[in-house]
Amino acid sequence: MAASPPDPQGAPIAILPLASGAAPVSGDANVLAGLLQFEAEIRRQGSVAELHYHVANEMRRILPYDQMFIARQPRIGDDYHIICASSISSVDRNTPLIQAMEKLISKLAATDGLDRPHDFALAAMGDDAALAEYPFGQCRWQPLLDREGKVFAGLLLMRETMFREGENFRLTRISETVSHSWRALTGEKPVKRIGRFGRKEKIGVSVALLVIALFPVRMTALAPVEVVAERPFTVAAPFSGVISRIHVAPNAAVEEGELLVSFDDVKLSNELKLAEEKLAVAKARVDRSTSSAFGKDDETREIATLRAEYDLAQADYGFANDVMDLAAIKAPRSGMAIYSDRRDWEGRAVNVGDPILQVADPGKIALRIDLPAAEQMALNRGSRVKLWLDAQPLWAIEGKVKYASYQARQTAEGILAFAVLAEPVSDRPRIGSRGTAKLYGERVPLLYSLLKRPIASLRQTVGF
Questions:
Q1: I need a surface site. Which of 65, 169, 261, 284 has the fewest CB within 10 A?
Q2: pLDDT at residue 31 tops 60
Q3: 29 or 45: whose pLDDT is higher?
Q4: How many other C-beta atoms can be found within 10 angstroms of the C-beta atom of residue 60?
Q5: Domain at 221-229+364-462: CATH architecture
Q6: Distance from C-alpha of 139 to C-alpha of 108, rounded to nearest angstrom
């Protein structure tokens, strides 16, 4: 028997025998060195994904196998999911082979459990069309346990020959190292499972959901809004003609009696001159007939007819003169001139009654809201409105509803909407500003508020 090598102090080092029950030593020092080196490589992996890939593909150096699958518990449920496989860069759980392996693990869990190692033949686990031509018939399930000794994952090794006892010993040791590294990389939480509720927890959750569903909230709706004048005076075309000039700029302040719009008066002046000449002719004929009233009898009879013609000519002249006065439109009151652009109106032909501009008091404004018909709800006078302008999106303006129409109309965007008029409570935004308004209706249960639109859409589609 060879002597033990001396230590640096000269004392001999005793070599302890293996404990009873330990795996038999193969005598191959290379296998032991390779095992220790592989365990060191496992501990050097920087992420769980790298750990999986390294174990699935590099463990062949320690233990011969043809294919390995790494399965893990999901966050919810009991079925294990394949997350890594040897010789495959990424796992697609929709492929027939992966689905068959997951079914195989589920069947093994139902028959023998997964908390301990199992050696079994693939044919003994039933017939599966996806595994009919699978070439590796001998299987080994090696569980990975957490600190409490509960299985959270496992290694499924496949090959043509059965696994020997010495190989099982190496596989058990490697699985302990893999489990330790996996837990270390995930902070002792290799699988963040969502715990199952017991009977009391289910009742508590049901009661909480019922209370939340019946919690009263206000019905709300979002709709486009525009700041408009409350009661503007609309300046319309008094007759059909061509606008020659608009004398005030858009949104400019005007005084009562200030000239606003001028029409092209060439035709009007000619008609006025023609009416004036007709009136002069009619007057001359009447004067001549009157001076000869004591002359011939036939001329005396035409006096009534000539006076009628004179009155008609005088009426035409008065009408032409009035129309000429209307060619220059003046401001009926002080305020602000509201219209789009001078270039949209100057030189444009308009018909009688066509609106040209508005004169409004800038201090008296209203909020015109187009509430879509799909968002309709009960609104009362004084209902709350919150307004976010596009120019001021960071803070809201409070308002209240004045009235809401009972009939929907089609907007310029082609949307069927109800007209809602509101007034601001705090700030006074500029006329013409646009944004989004949030209208608050009556209080209803939260469940009704969430399901109102889906139920309405379903009824419109199905018809009940």
A1: 284
A2: yes
A3: 45
A4: 12
A5: Beta Barrel (2.40)
A6: 11
